[in-house]
Structures are given as C-alpha cells and as structure tokens.
Write a structure and sequence with these properties.
Radius of gyration: 31 Å
Strand content: 35-45%
Distance between the termini: 45 Å
Number of helices: 3
Largest sheet: 5 strands, mixed
CATH topology of the largest domain: STM4215-like
Shape: elongated
Number of domains: 2
Length: 282
C-alpha cells in the first residue's frame, strides 16, 4: 500500500498542471543531481496514528452471512518534498526551484484527502479517506541535523503527511445467527452440584432475525414486518433485516408491506433445521 500511496502523490502532482517535470522518490543525498526540473518525494518516516486507534470491529450482514472486519492500522507516512532545477544553482535556478516548490505546496495544501482519481481501484472511495496534511510543525526539529544525516546540505523543503487505513487482519465470514433462545425458571442443583432449571418451571422465549428481499433478490429496506398473532411490528433496516424478540414457540403469520405490496408468510419458531426466517416479496 505504501508504494501505491507514493504513486498516488505522483499522479496528484502531474495531473494538477505542473508541466513537464519529473516526480521521483529518491533519498536527496549529495549524489542526487537530477538533470531536469524535478519534485522529489522522499519517504522518511512511518508511524501509527494513535489518535485514530480503536478496537471496535466493523460488521456487515450480507446474504445470510456475517462479515467481521478488525479495525485497520492507521499509518502516517511523512514525505520530505523538495524541488530541483539544474545543478549550478544560479540565482535563476534557485528562484525556479522556489516557484516549483510553491506550486507543489499549493497542490498538496488544497487537498485534505487523496482524490479518488489518483488512487488505484481497490482504494477508491476508501472509508475513512486517505487524509493529507502539509507543513506539520516540529516534524524535523533540527533541519540542519536532518540534512546532514541524509548526506546533503540544507535546502528549502516542506513535509506532507498522509494517514491511510492499512488492513492487517483478514476478514472473518460466519453464518448469521437467526434464532436465540432465552430460558427462564427456578434454579436447582443436581446431585453433583451443577445448577439447572427445574423442568416444571422452565419457560423458553426466542429472538428471531430474518431478511426481506424483493423479486430481484435485493434487500427491501424500510418494509413493515408484522406478526399477526401478536402486537409486534418492526421495520427492516438497510440490509432488509427484521428482528423480533421474546416469542413463544409456535406458528406465526408474518405480514410484510413494502410500498403498495403486502404479502403474508408462514413462520415456525424456532425455525426447523436448515431453514431461516427469510422471505421474498413477489
């Protein structure tokens, strides 16, 4: 992903009208002497953005499956941006370098995130987007020491830092839970001391989840689902999912209304093995 970020920054600069310039990623040591106008993006630092760290997974429900995604690692990538025009360093070349550096700064500063046009397809429309900040303070507290460490003399530069979400865990796909059983009753213990519910006091209630789809198999959101034998009514979510709680075992009539379409379905709670509460409007 880091190399794709570098390519995206190159695309952003060249697409923004800098003209016939080179965009490279070299270490700007003393032997770096480009022969044509060049913007150099030297990646000098990688670190985790701790302010964005969290542990809450993302959950997506799709076609009877639950897809769980662990949070990504938010990586801040810092680039040293320099401009190079010629090698003799005449006043004309110095001013041209400053003008080129100003143009690069303006391009980066006007983009708080990397545009989708510059990202490869797998990363377009990324949530969250790849955020970019220029001229962060105190990134290099001692500039002369920094330039000395990379083997060159101090020259005008600015920093650009892009924070991108980097997935580090594989997503986990599992079957969706459609029925949950809740048992109530008076506790007692077996001869071995194991707690159990007295059979004569046992009551079972069920929580069920299903999905409403249309004739095109697409989820029906904001459909009204009603169990006619009860006073329970709910509305489907964006994935067409509905949920009822605290049901007794038995047969029910589910009425689903979506727009002008209304249809009844027979449900058995709990659902027989290998069956679900999913319904299809036709």
């Amino acid at each position: 992903m880091i190399h794709e970020l570098s390519q995206a920054l190159r695309s952003l600069l060249t697409r923004s009208g800098l003209g016939e310039i080179e965009v490279v990623f070299n270490r700007p040591a003393e032997n770096f002497q480009p022969t044509k106008p060049t913007i150099n993006l030297f990646l000098y630092d990688l670190r985790e953005n701790l302010e964005l760290r969290h542990n809450e997974p993302g959950i997506e429900r799709r076609s009877g499956q639950v897809i769980t995604r662990r949070p990504p690692l938010f990586v801040a990538c810092s680039y040293l941006v320099t401009a190079w025009v010629g090698q003799s360093q005449t006043e004309t070349e110095i001013l041209q370098e400053q003008a080129l550096l100003s143009q690069a700064l303006q391009i980066f500063a006007r983009h708080p995130t990397i545009p989708d046009d510059d990202l490869p397809e797998p990363f377009k429309r990324s949530i969250p987007p790849w955020e970019m900040v220029t001229l962060l303070p105190d990134t290099q507290k001692n500039l002369s020491e920094f330039w000395s460490s990379i083997g060159n003399k101090l020259r005008p530069s600015f920093n650009a830092t892009v924070t991108m979400p980097m997935p580090v865990f594989a997503e986990v796909t599992s079957s969706m839970v459609t029925t949950a059983t809740v048992k109530f009753g008076k506790l007692t213990t077996t001869e071995e001391g194991k707690p159990i519910i007295k059979p004569e006091t046992l009551q079972e209630f069920f929580h069920i989840r299903g999905q409403v789809v249309g004739a095109d198999d697409k989820p029906k959101k904001e459909a009204i689902a009603t169990l006619l034998e009860t006073s329970l009514t709910t509305q489907t979510d964006d994935n067409g999912q509905f949920r009822f709680t605290d049901l007794l075992a038995g047969s029910y009539t589910l009425r689903v209304q979506s727009g002008a379409t209304s249809q009844n379905f027979n449900l058995t709670v709990p659902a027989p093995q290998n069956s679900t509460y999913n319904v299809k409007l036709t």
